[in-house]
Every structure is written in C-alpha cells, then in structure tokens.
Amino acid sequence: MKSIDSVRDPLPGFGARAIPYVPLALFAGLGAVLAYLWKWPCRFNAAWNDGTLQFTNFCYTDIYPLWWNERLNEGQVPYFDYPVEYPVGIGGIMEFFRRIIPGDPGSTQAGTTFYDLTVILMAICLVVGVLMMAALAGPARRWDALWYALAPALILTAYINWDLAANALALGALLAWSKRRQWLAGVLLGLAIATKFYPLMFLGPLFLLTWRTGRWKPFLQTLGGVVGAWLAVNLPIMILAFDGWKRFYVFSQERPADWGSLWYFFNQKGWPLLGDPDRLDTLGVLSLGAFCLAIAVLTLTVRERPRLAQLCFLTLAAFMLTNKVWSPQYVLWLIPFAVLARPNWKPIALWMVAECWYFFAIWLYLVGLQEGKAHLGIAGDTYFTAVWGRAITILIMMAFVVRDILKPEHDVIRKDGSDDTAGGVFDGAPDRFRIALG
To answer: Which UniProt keywords apply (predicted)?
Structure first.
C-alpha cells in the first residue's frame, strides 16, 4: 500500500530539486523586465518611427520595423509570399504572431503588438536558457548563470532580434547531451540551427571529443537528430517555396563586410588584401578554418582532454571574430558559453565593458553617418575603438581558456577532481586517440 506522502507527491524529490532554481528564474525574469524597460523610449514614445531618436535613445530593435519590411503588415506569408531573410525558425515565429495579432495589420499598434508578443516569447526563452545553463553548470556552480540572467550587455541587447530563442534551443541541446539523451540533443540542436546559424559550430567540438574518446555511436545518434530535425522544418519550405527559403542563404553569401566585424574595419580603412571586398568570403573561410584547425590540434594533442564547454566557447568565439557581420546582439550567443568555459569574473567583466561600449558606439556612429547629424554622433575612428575593444577582450578570454586546457590545474571547474560533468558520454571516458607531440 502506498504511503500518504507518496500519493500526495507524485514526483518525490522534484520539489527539492526545483527549489534552488527558483531564485535563478526570478533573476532571469528581472533581467527580461529590465531589458524591456531599456526599450521604453522607443516602445512608448514612438522613437522607432524616427531615424535619429531610436539611435540617440539607444533603443533600436529589428523586430518592430520588420513587421513592415518583411510585409507581415500586408498579410504576406514568409517565404511563400515574400522572401524573408531569416532561417525558417524565425520565419515560423513571425508567421505565428502575424496570424494572431488583432485589428488593422497596417497600423502602428499592430507593429507594436508584434514587438510585445515577440518580447514575451524571448523573455520566456531567457528564463528557460538561464535555468538550463544553471543545470549545465552543476549544483556547485549553478549561480554562475546569473552572468546570463543579468549581464549588462544582455539587458541592452536582449530584444534587438530573435537570438534568445536559438540560445534556449542550443543550451537545451547541450543539456540533453550532458544527460546522455543523444537523440533529443540532436533534435534540439537541429532546431537551433534552423533558427540561427551559429549553433552549427557546436558539432565541431562534439566531433573532436568523439574522435578522442571513440564514442561514435552517441555522436552519430546526435548527428542523425540534427539532420532529421533540420530537414523536418526546412524541407517543406524548400519544396513549396524554394526561392523564398533560399533568400537567407543567398543574402548571407552576398552580404558585404558589415558593421561590427573586423572586416568592416579593414574595408573602411582600405587595407590591402584584408580590405578587398572581392576576397572577403575567401578570407572569412580561411580565417575561420585556421581557428578551427588550431582548436582541433589543441584538442587532439593536449595531455588532458578539454571540456566540451571550453571547446564550444572557442569555436563560437572564432566564428564571431571571423564573421562578415557582428551585430550587437551576438553577445547573447557567447555569454553562457564564456561563463561555462571559464567562470572568472575579471575577464568577463572586462568583456562586458567592451560590449557595452560597442552597444553605445554603434548607434552613435550610425547617427554620425546621417546628413546634418554628425554633431550628435561619433566619428569612425572612435567607433572602431569599440570594434577592436570587444574583439581583443574575447581574444583575451580565449587565451585564458587555452591556458586552462594546457594546464588543467588552472581550470576552476576541475579543481574538485571532476572531469567534464556537462560532457555527457565524454565525462570520465578513457582516451582512444591522442596525438603525442612530445
């Protein structure tokens, strides 16, 4: 006969396990509210409709103008009626909200409602992402997730675009991997890639650690889940609206060096070779390839196998440093993985200062480019201090992570004798392949 306690509590122990996460969820909610309040001058004073005020009030968002730019106000269905320049995950979110927004779709209120509904979804994604990051960090370090919940750069950039949705899926994928649920990890990672392209970089670390440990079955299961989930949401659009579907990929390929990227600096300064727009794609691929090759050599030769979070951070940082565009909200991608890789507050705080400076600098720079508004903004040279500031601080963090890999005694995560608690099948696995250099 069941005891009274077991009947009353159908999930024994669940409450005890959940309680430590409640404060983190509340802090994440606070971060979401603060991010919403940051957009207050635009949301409530119509600054989004002014090409200068949205920059001088530092409250720009892509979401509001895209209601019109992507023809959602005309009732056009993404990809089928209009070639949206985003992956299908974001296009699906757009279409869902387009269908439920009441009233006149051409009104300013409809665009504002579209923004508000998107913010609610992104706020939920932030809370979920923080909780999953805390679970990945483990009981001893779950409070590291506060760096994600309340990071100054997050509050400034949270609602510029749909990046928090991809973050939640990517963190969910790595959490599923850590729990050795490979198929689920693959499905979530495939959906993340279908929402934003950057989570594709995480396949590299999984492959390298699989090569070193010989755990091929879990990796292949995850890869199957990635391919299956990505095809499940992309294939119908590819078949029925190929021209609209391919717009994102064509746009990404044809896009020139854009704001925030180091290539934009080289281009604007007219550097030979590095500033040549005709060689941009080749240089981008070669530079990313060089970073990835260095990470691979490090992974396969180092005495003690790197942690999965360390490699995810390094590959993602490499992707950002070599990308043709580096929008302010891309900081959201890196925050959780930077903290999971190396939860040391000093370099992270320095990086946050650089990211915040860039956030303010980009809007002032755009104001300065407007005719007759130069006195309200900043010049190019001042703006480029922000471009290089965040690149250098990320390189500094990468250097510290590499040092921790080369000298594991400096890795605070491993000081208690653990191996890779978020590594799933890699945790405690013996090496099957290692290149000994000496």
So the answer is: Cell membrane, Membrane, Transferase, Transmembrane, Transmembrane helix
